[in-house]
Structure formats: C-alpha cells, structure tokens
Amino acid sequence: MSGGRLKRLILLGMLASIGAAMLARTQTWAVLELHTSEFDRSVISNGGDPALAVMAFSLAGLAAIAALAIAGRGFRVVIGALSAVLGIGIAVAAGYAASEPAVGFVGPVRELSGITDAEGIGEIIAQGTMSDTVWPFVALAAGAVQAALGVLVVVTARRWPESARRYRRAALAPEGEARASTASDPVSQWDALSVGDDPTEDDAEAANPR
Q: Which end of the chain is more exposed for a tag (fewer CB within 10 A), N or C?
C-alpha cells in the first residue's frame, strides 16, 4: 500500500471514530425509572461529566487530525502519540460512564428534586431502576479505535508522503528563486523544520556565496 493511500485511510478512520464518539455524546446513555411516592417518571441521562470529557477529548482529536493532514514527518509522530492519548481518554471516560451509570443521573435528579446534597440525590437514584443503552459502549469503541490509529500513525509516519507545496515550487522556479521562496515562505519553513532541515541555510549561502 502506498504511503499516500495509507495516510488517507488513517485520517478517514480517525474522522469516523471521532465522529462516532461525538454522536454518542448527544444520545441517551442510560434511563432511570423512578416509581416512588414522590416521583413517578423516567429520567434520562446523557452521560453526565464523563460524557462531557468524551466531547472535550473528541474536539481535541479533531484538531489533531487537521494538524496531521499537513504536518511533516517529525510532527506526525508527536501528533500521532497525542491522538492515541486522546483516544484512551475517550475510552476511559466512556468506560467509566458505562460502569457507573448513576453518575450521569446526578444532574437530572438534582433538577427534578431540588435536592442539592450528594447523599440525598444518591438515595433517590438508589430507589429507581437503571438501564443502560449502547451509546457509552459506542464511545468506548470509538476511543479504542482512535488510540489504535494514533499508534499506527507513529509506526507508519515515515511512509507518509511529504508536503508537496515546497517541492512543487522548487520544481517550477529557477534554483536561486526556489531557494529564496522556500526560505521566505513561513509554510515552507515550517515544513523544513518538521523534517529536520534548517530553513536558514539558504539565506546564509545567499549572503556568503562561495
């Protein structure tokens, strides 16, 4: 498989996993059935604080994907590792919400009852019957996929094609002009730094011709 195709597949996979995590955040994560003398209704949980963490990690993951699309080789490894960490964060937050669904009902029960102390809210939740939905597990799986793809970026970063802008300019312009353009263009300088080149070398050569 070519490096360009590999890059596209990984980025698309990351977009899909982040999209799935963000979609899961908007869905119902658990339902609490309350049938007591005080309350007789169903309470819906969207995941509470753990789900908010899922969204925060997902937004950071989107930014990482955008950076990966234009990053040079050195930065790809760093961003790939960061993407893996963000994926782990998504999976951990979603897994916690799935294992402790009562956490997601603290806010809704507080609004329903008007009770503010944690002990009173916990007693109301304990009187009900909770049932999970599939969405926290969707978010967990999405986080795991994102983490795996981040690791794959780190492993395959050297196979990805370099940014074409810098070299396309150099090919179309005379040698001296291409060097000057590369040295003066901030984007080209960034690309040079990301692959380990020194963008100031051309300026030094121009100032001190042999």
A: C
